[in-house]
Write a structure and sequence with these properties.
The complex is a heterodimer of chains A (about 150) and B (about 475). Chain A has six helices and five strands. The longest helix of chain A has 25 residues. Chain B is α+β, with helices and mostly antiparallel strands. Chain B has two domains: about 80 residues; about 250 residues, Porin. Chain B contains four helices and 17 strands. In chain B, strands 1-2-3-5-6-7-8-9-10-11-12-13-14-15-16-17 form a 16-stranded antiparallel β-barrel. In chain B, a hairpin with a 4-residue loop joins strand 13 and strand 14. Classes of the chains: A alpha/beta (about 150), B alpha+beta (about 475). Chains A and B meet through helix 2, helix 4 and helix 5 of A and helix 3, strand 1, strand 2 and strand 5 of B.
């Protein structure tokens, strides 16, 4: 009985630790879109983002033509976007674009190192979207809104 | 100042005396000289006074400016102090905005630096009317060793360079071109040693033949050239020479992404039409529909096979991608004629299954044909692969082809049924470089007058894409 209690206590401690630490990690990044884009979080927005980023789909379900913007390979933002939204590794993504380049000549989204420049791009193009850190998303310029946090 | 004045007076006197003529000894001349001397003295006095005044002014001015500079320095110190410890909301706001501006300037500097590194002083290329212009390609090289029943052969049998170009006019219109510079020879057989390769039933004595079309054996085919119009994601129209949109590997086509650059038996010879033409020229409609996580895609085409310009093949493929499951199922069919001068004698059906989930990449395809006056053909393969990590992939392929020939006089070009077992590994030191090592056991079944035969093939290949 004592052993059971110990295990239960440890389990609860582990769950509590995970519960309190997970949100900070889970909401460290944000997908930003142009404020004029009527797309909203929920439903199939993750699969839509994936299809748009991989250029399988070229227009938002809300209407505008998509302009996906990437971040520098290896940056924390891109790594989080790859694993959480695309569900792919960097090598998966490389293979995807190698295949697309050969079949149709399509290339991957432009990689932008600077969050400031990315936000300006998003503010100017209706269908643009990209990933920024939560800190960068805290003070967005006019014309940009957060679609979802992760 | 006094010394200066004395020097000037002395100089003036000496100057006057030096310039006095030898005959100037009368009183009038002397008086004139005295007046001149007086004037000079007066002028010197005036100039001295002016110089003194200027000196005073300069000293005063210097004093004033020193005071001003001290005041400015005090102000700057105060501003700096305010920046370090903002006291009120306005200062904090200024601080934040200043920080934003500094970040933007840093971003811009970074971008300019990046652009400068890329472009430098090089010429910036314009692409006529294209809004977007991409150019890439790959270099592919292979060394192959074949051990047959009656001999062996080895050599660098593939050297391909292909150039890929895409140009977008706008969001609706795009074009894609692939041109090749190919020097390659397939594994062939010359059992009777007469120098003519791949005669009926030859399967024991391997050799290579370079497909020559120009001195040096290099061909420069137009591989792909199409223009695409996008109405929306559900409807696109493509016109030109294209990869026939059937199956999995035929559409993937380019060695930069293929685990084995030889492709399955039913797609050989590359660019041929063992089961269906690898390339066709004509019109294709294609598009995709999205349902939650799943995707339905279609291709429908009306086109001519290479070498049969006056004939038409009508066909298409429908595929359903089960999103998160990583499974795609495709079915396809085609009908028409692929032989010049023969109408409506060709029918094709096929199916494919792709599993692409985590480390597993498993491709399977099956195709069957029926053709007037020619026995039907059957080809299929299954190719499971395991992505060990980002750099290593291991795979196996079971491959089968029945070319339909039966050794009769009506179908003399018989090589019988062929089975291949292939194992291989891919190593990608960087994503754009793929190296492969494959080992293949090829088995020819006995057929007609030919007995069975085996050939072992070892191949090393590498593809560099950019």
């Amino acid at each position: 009985m004592k052993t059971f209690r110990n295990i239960l206590a440890l389990t609860l401690l582990a769950v509590a630790t995970f519960t309190f630490t997970a949100p900070a990690f889970a909401e460290g990044f944000a997908i930003v879109v142009n404020a004029a884009n009527s797309i909203a979080d929920g439903g199939n927005v993750d699969s839509e983002l994936k299809n748009l980023y991989l250029k399988k789909k070229t227009s938002w379900s809300s209407g505008p033509s998509a302009v996906p913007l990437g971040r520098s390979a290896g940056s924390p933002e891109q790594a989080a976007f790859l694993s959480t939204v695309l569900g792919m590794s960097q090598s998966d993504l490389d293979s995807h674009w190698a295949s697309e380049k050969s079949k149709t000549g399509a290339t991957g989204p432009r990689e932008i190192g600077s969050a400031g420049i990315l936000l300006r791009q998003v503010s100017r193009k209706e269908g643009a979207f990209g990933v920024v850190s939560a800190a960068e998303a805290a003070s967005l310029p006019d014309g940009v809104k957060v679609l979802k946090k992760f | 100042m006094r010394k200066t004045r004395k020097f000037l007076v002395t100089t003036a006197l000496v100057g006057c005396l030096m310039s006095t003529p030898a005959f100037a000894n009368d009183a009038a001349t002397l008086k004139k000289l005295e007046k001149t001397l007086e004037k000079a003295m007066s002028l010197i006095e005036t100039q001295s006074e002016q110089m003194q005044e200027m000196k005073h002014e300069i000293t005063a001015l210097k004093k004033d400016k020193t005071t001003e500079i001290s005041a400015l320095k005090s102000e700057i110190s105060a501003v700096r102090a305010a920046r370090v410890e903002p006291a009120a909301g306005s200062n904090a706001d200024l601080e934040r905005r200043l920080s934003d501006v500094e970040m933007v300037v840093a971003d811009v500097e970074e971008t300019v630096f990046d652009l400068d590194e890329r472009a430098g002083s090089e010429t910036i290329v314009n692409a006529f009317d294209a809004s977007n212009f991409d150019i890439g390609g790959f270099v592919n090289t292979a060394y192959t060793y074949v051990d047959g029943e009656d001999g062996s052969a080895h050599g660098w049998n593939r050297q391909n360079f292909e150039l890929l170009i895409r140009a977008d006019l706008n969001e609706q219109w795009s074009a894609f071109f692939a041109g090749g510079f190919l020097r390659e020879g397939n594994v062939s057989f010359d059992d009777d040693g007469d120098g003519t390769l791949n005669e009926a039933g030859e399967r024991r004595n391997p050799d290579f033949v370079i497909e020559a079309a120009s001195p040096g054996g290099t061909r420069t085919p137009q591989i792909i050239a199409w223009v695409n119009y996008k109405h929306d994601d559900a409807l696109n129209a493509k016109l030109g020479r294209m990869i026939t949109p059937l199956g999995i590997i035929n559409q993937e086509h380019f060695p930069a992404t293929l685990l084995d650059q030889e492709q399955p038996l039913f797609l050989r010879p590359f660019g041929g039409q063992t089961m269906f033409p690898n390339f066709t020229t004509g019109l294709q409609a294609h598009g995709q529909f999205f349902f939650d996580d799943n995707t339905l895609s279609y291709n429908a085409f009306a086109a001519s096979a290479q070498g049969a310009i006056e004939e038409e093949i009508f066909g298409g493929r429908v595929a359903y991608d089960f999103g998160e499951m990583g499974v795609t199922v495709g079915v396809q069919a085609a009908t028409g004629s692929r032989t010049e001068g023969v109408d409506g004698d060709y029918d094709l059906v096929g199916a494919d299954l792709l599993v692409d989930k985590g480390p597993v990449l498993w491709k399977s395809e099956v195709f069957a044909t029926e053709e007037e006056d020619v026995p039907g053909r059957l080809g299929y393969y299954t190719q499971p692969a395991w992505r060990v990590n980002d750099q290593w992939v291991a795979f196996y392929r079971y491959d089968f082809l029945d070319d339909g020939a039966n050794g009769t006089a009506a179908v003399p070009d018989n090589f019988g049924d062929v089975t291949e077992h292939m194992v291989g590994v891919n190593y990608l030191p960087i994503p754009n470089v793929r190296t492969r090592l494959t080992a293949t056991r090829r088995e020819y079944e006995s057929s007609g007058t030919q007995g069975s035969a085996e050939a072992d093939i070892l191949q090393f290949s590498t593809t560099y894409s950019f």
